[in-house]
Amino acid sequence: MKSRKEEPKTHPPNPRVGHPLDRSGSYPGHPPFLSDNLLFETSSNFCLNNATGANVKIYNVAGYLIILAYMLACMYSAPTPLGPWIGMLIGGAYFIFCWFMGGLYLADVLHLGIAHRSLDYKEWFMKAVTAVNNTFAIYVDPIAWVNRHRLHHKHSDHSGDPNKLSEDGFWRTLYLCLIPYQCKENLAGDKILKSRTFRVVANPVFAILAQAFSFYLLWKLVGSLKFALVMWLGIRIFSLWVNMIQNYWTHTRTFGYRRYHDDDDNAMNIGEWLPVTATFSACLQNNHHHYEGLLRLSHDKSEYDFGFITVKVMKYLGLVKATSTGAQLPKDVPLDALGF
């Protein structure tokens, strides 16, 4: 497997026992950023890959606050016959359903299965996940996403990257999560993307009708327009935070840690429990950008990898197998075996 750089790499300290940056949490030569390193926990209960005493960063605070606000809003908006606790339970179930389907669809199927061809899924399974997620959960055009992601790797953080340029700040990147830069190339010519299922799902008419149907169905199931609106919008705000983890926080060098010091992109690893779980491990961007074809995004046993866990479960169920590209373990990845 070809790496981003051919020269030998040096590895930062294990993220469990030491921050790879300096003691202030900043890179040498850069001033410390208080907002990048807000410390709220003094133990590693909430994260698995960061040093004790430097656990909950600003992106974690934002994520936990969004979840808390979502659950409180569900309790407040739940119709009287249900009550606040049943409302919170229903809201939680809808939240988990949309999050899990989105992660399975984007991180496992579109990302590793199609965009990077690291995993070989059963075709019927890919089509089923695509149809279910885009009809009942959060819609994402599969063809456009694969094309954007391949362009992102081709032009990472430079002109041509539809997600974010190196100089783009927080608010610009937030806007780009909703309206990305225009793609100037088409790299999504895969046979599976030309199948009827994917072409129908990628149609703008389907996108509008599917999301309208998902909201209408949720409204009728819970019996309250206000309650349905809170859940429907709330999970989309959380998904925007997930997108920001991947596009902003893991592509800004004042956050996270680097295993591979590639100069041509800003990809970072963020290893705390919430971002890794929420993104199905897509926040281990530095690892992934260095070896984009590898089927796992963790490159060390100490790195928590929720996405890899889900892939192993699907392998056990006979839904997926590794491709020759995905199964090739580079020599400088500090793993004894792929574990797949």
Q: What class would the helix/strand composition place it in?
A: mainly alpha
Instruction: Give the % helix.
Output: 40-55%
Shape: globular
Parts with pLDDT < 50 across at least 5 consecutive residues: 2-55
Largest sheet: 2 strands, antiparallel
For the record, the count of structural domains works out to 1
Number of extended strands: 2
Strand order of the largest sheet: 1-2
Oligomeric state of the chains in view:
single chain
Order of helices and strands: HHEHHHHHHHHHE
Radius of gyration: 20 Å
Secondary structure tally, helices: 11
Strand content: under 5%
Mean pLDDT: 87
Distance between the termini: 17 Å
Features:
single chain; 340 residues; mainly alpha; two-stranded antiparallel sheet
Structure described in brief:
The chain has helices at residues 58-77, 83-115, 123-136, 142-154, 170-178, 196-201, 204-222, 225-247, 273-278, 285-290, 306-316; strands spanning 119-121, 320-322.
Descriptive report:
The chain is an all-alpha fold and 340 residues long. The protein contains eleven helices and two strands; from the N terminus they run ααβαααααααααβ. A two-stranded antiparallel sheet has the order 1-2.
How does the SSE layout of this entry go?
Elements: H1 58-77, H2 83-115, E1 119-121, H3 123-136, H4 142-154, H5 170-178, H6 196-201, H7 204-222, H8 225-247, H9 273-278, H10 285-290, H11 306-316, E2 320-322
